[in-house]
């Protein structure tokens, strides 16, 4: 807690002067380009990993980067917090992109994979059921990358399952079909610091280096035409 408190002081004394004008503008409105859905894990820091600034990302974080699917009426089958963030991002902020970002060594995925009942955590157990389809897919279809540890294999498949859950929301599906919204699946390897993006053509997560980034941006530009 001391580190957290002193970090606030350091920001106030050293960083705030650089951001003062930006915060003044952001106080009136925000226009983020993307909704970034990721895990609560302390090792995953979206603004650091994407070199973004205040106002760039609308971020939703929870254990396991999970999105409870919606009914045909668009009502969440799980916690309303995630559904509310999706609705606000799409309907109010009108983001053009939604990214679901999983990561290596995810505690949530380890729990789903091991089915550990020793924690006596009924709320967590109920929440993690939204990753059960990913576990089933791993068992039935196998991993995207068999070089990874089993829980990391699950983590990658979980990203794809949560993208499918996103598409159960009518407002998301309508915007995607209209070409106004793009869904992307990313995966962060904590050990190497590398970010990967899922490529449907290769059915694999590929590292986002400069060449990959240029291809991704070109595809986005083509869709915007």
TrEMBL record:
GO terms for biological process: carbon utilization. Keywords: Lyase, Metal-binding, Zinc. Coiled coil: none annotated. Its cofactor is Zn(2+). One of its GO terms (molecular function) is carbonate dehydratase activity. It catalyses: hydrogencarbonate + H(+) = CO2 + H2O. It comes from Paraburkholderia atlantica. Zn(2+) binds at residues 39, 41, 103, 106. Belongs to the beta-class carbonic anhydrase family. The keyword Protein biosynthesis does not apply. Its EC number is 4.2.1.1. Reversible hydration of carbon dioxide. SMART domains: Pro_CA. PROSITE patterns: PROK_CO2_ANHYDRASE_1, PROK_CO2_ANHYDRASE_2. The keyword Transport does not apply. It comes from the Bacteria. This is Carbonic anhydrase. It holds the Pfam family Pro_CA. The lineage of its organism: Bacteria, Pseudomonadati, Pseudomonadota, Betaproteobacteria, Burkholderiales. Binds 1 zinc ion per subunit. PANTHER family: CARBONIC ANHYDRASE.
